[in-house]
Specification:
There is one protein chain. The chain is α+β, with helices and mostly antiparallel strands and 402 residues long. It folds into 3 domains: 145 residues, DNA methylase specificity domains (Adenine-n6-DNA-methyltransferase TaqI, Chain A, domain 2), CATH 3.90.220.20; 97 residues; 123 residues, DNA methylase specificity domains (Adenine-n6-DNA-methyltransferase TaqI, Chain A, domain 2, Alpha-Beta Complex). Helix content is 36%, strand content 20%. Strand 6 and strand 7 form a beta hairpin. Helix 1 packs antiparallel against helix 5, helix 5 runs antiparallel to helix 11 and helix 5 runs antiparallel to helix 12. The longest helix is centred in the middle third of the chain and has 43 residues. The radius of gyration is 28 Å and the shape is elongated.
Length: 402
């Protein structure tokens, strides 16, 4: 029997009472800027200060009584739990650390200040992170374009309220698990970054030819067999088809508009099979992506290759020169890349078997470092899921009957 099991069996064997958050929190008051004794400067916790993943306060700005934003009205104390009630930080939350005691936060947060006779601040912190609370907030938020939640709704949610010793043991366990999970994630992130650098190193060396060619995994014979050809000679380029979202029917086919991710999804395609897509205009003009599924390309170029060139090899070569492609942008207001300039880029074309060898190596690195379904990213995701499951399990109690 664990310490928690023993405490539950001893202190609340028949279940626990559920109470609204508002009933276990102390009232808070807005700041009075005209009050005597106000400090000269405060740190302002605004709508972008709270990190979504780490639930911590990041950058804040310094404000004064004469230069404070209109929303800077709430004084926070150490261990207060603040919960975002308006976009863009709706549903973000954190616990106020000691260094922000007495500082000021935006009215875009609901302050949950625990009544110490009833509940521990960190117990509230863990409760509002549960899936049940997330689903509750989804049902009470209002507004489509600018969703928000009223403070009264944030506090209306009823949480299980075991005796303080039980809360203390749960908090200890979850805080320990959080710390260990964070340490493990930091190690995995460091490993992932190292793998990415290793991948970039090999990609750069495998795709370097001529006098600067790396000797690792390559040979001089390959250099002699390598031709330098323009994209015009080994491939074709087609421009995407202009379309607007209101003129399409929603479906599951990605629409490639010019960003790094699909802009939306529709029910028709203008290309099937393997293709390289290069964004044509906007901030990401020149961005290269690889697709092997039906897609609809609009503000971009579709690149295909002839029998001399492995299309995945071309993708890796272009990806290796991504910075140079971005630098090809022209124009002031809406920069763009010109198709004729892209098609004049010279590509080293080794024998097809060498191209396939390079692609096989880089595919393995790419899967390990970038694919969320394999390798280290999946491990990080699994650890977070494990913590969320463990947390929700610990914070679920049988409700005590009258």
């Amino acid at each position: 029997m664990t310490d928690l099991d023993r405490l539950i069996a001893e202190l609340c064997p028949d279940g626990v009472e559920y109470m609204p958050l508002g009933d276990v929190c102390l009232p808070t008051m807005n700041i009075n800027w005209q009050r005597e004794g106000m400090r000269n400067e405060y740190q302002y916790i605004d709508l972008t200060s709270v990190e979504r993943e780490t639930h911590s306060i990041s950058e804040t700005q310094t404000i004064t009584a004469t230069a404070a934003p209109s929303r800077a009205q709430q004084v926070v104390q150490e261990n207060d739990v603040i919960f975002g009630t308006t976009r863009p930080l709706l549903k973000r939350y954190c616990s106020v650390p000691p260094e922000y005691n007495g500082q000021i936060c935006s009215t875009g947060f609901c302050i949950l200040r625990a009544d110490p006779t009833l509940v521990l601040p960190r117990y509230i912190y863990h409760q509002i992170g549960t899936q049940n609370y997330y689903e509750y907030i989804e049902t009470v938020q209002r507004g489509a374009s600018y969703p928000a939640v009223a403070n009264s709704d944030v506090k209306r949610y009823a949480i299980p309220l075991p005796p303080l010793p039980v809360q203390q043991e749960i908090v200890r366990m979850l805080d320990t698990f959080t710390r260990l999970t964070a340490e493990l994630e930091a190690e995995l992130e460091a490993e992932l970054e190292a793998r990415k650098k290793q991948y970039e190193y090999y990609r750069n060396h495998l795709l370097t030819f001529g006098e600067n060619r790396a000797t690792l995994l390559t040979d001089r014979q390959t250099d002699r067999q390598t031709q330098w050809l323009t994209l015009n000679e080994v491939g074709i380029m087609r421009r995407g088809t202009y379309v607007t979202q209101k003129n399409t029917v929603q479906g599951d086919i990605p629409v490639i508009l010019g960003g790094q991710e699909p802009a939306y999804y529709c029910d028709t395609c203008n290309h099937e099979g393997e293709a390289i897509v290069m964004s044509r205009s906007g901030a990401y003009a020149g961005f290269v992506s690889f697709w092997n599924q039906p897609i609809f390309v609009t503000d971009g170029f579709i690149l295909e290759t002839n029998d001399e060139l492995n299309i995945k090899y071309l993708y890796y070569y272009l990806k290796n020169m991504q910075d140079a492609l971005h630098e090809m942008k022209r124009g002031g207001g809406v920069p763009h890349v010109r198709g004729n300039e892209v098609m004049n880029i010279k590509i080293p074309v080794p024998p097809l078997n060498k191209q396939a060898h390079i692609v096989a190596i880089l595919d393995r690195f790419d899967a390990l470092t970038n694919d969320i379904t394999s390798g280290l990213p999946a491990e990080i995701k699994a650890r977070r899921k494990q913590y969320e499951y463990y947390r929700d399990k610990l914070l679920t109690f049988k409700e005590k009957t009258a």
